[in-house]
Amino acid sequence: MKVPSADYLRLTFLMTQDEWMTIYRFQNGLCPGCGEPLPDTCTLTDHDHKTGLVRGLLCFRCNKLIPDWVTIERLENILRYVKNPTATQALGHPHFGLPHRVGTKAQRKARKRLLKAQKNRVPIGTSLGSIK
Predict the structure, then answer these.
(1) Is residue 86 part of a domain?
(2) Tens of pLDDT along 40-86?
(3) Are residues 40 and 29 in contact, defined by beta-carbon separation less than 8 angstroms?
(4) Does pTM surpass 0.85?
(5) How far apart are CA 105 and CA 103, in angstroms?
(6) Spatial distance between the Cα atoms of 38 and 124, rounded to a whole number of angstroms
(7) pLDDT at res. 30
(8) Which residues constitute the domain of residue 114?
(9) Deepest of 50, 83, 88, 128, by most Cβ within 10 A of its Cβ?
(10) d(CA 46, CA 24)
(11) What is the CATH number of the domain that holds 21?
(12) At residue 36, does pLDDT exceed 90?
């Protein structure tokens, strides 16, 4: 494991290499976000950009998932929203559109399969993935 330089840790996070390694060992060398082993060369020291609070060590991907504007309250609100979508509440039932990101090749393929299924009158509820 490549530990960041003593100067970098002292000047950026006001911590020592020993403190950094204590965090690393406490996390068992794993990223708390994804559970994967922390990379040898690109382990990032995650911190709150507003307060400077050092939260731990993350892999690059998980560190990118936490934007600067994130707060505990926002995360709780988003989690509540994902678990209980407002559209489902408003309609009284879950409503499904086409899967995949809007405008992608994968979504265009799904739309094509749906149109083919409608033309062939495939029963509602049949998985679109099973239609070729």
Answers:
(1) no
(2) 988 999 998 888 999 999 999 999 988 888 888 988 998 999 999 99
(3) no
(4) no
(5) 7
(6) 45
(7) 98
(8) 96-132
(9) 128
(10) 12
(11) 3.40.1800.10
(12) yes
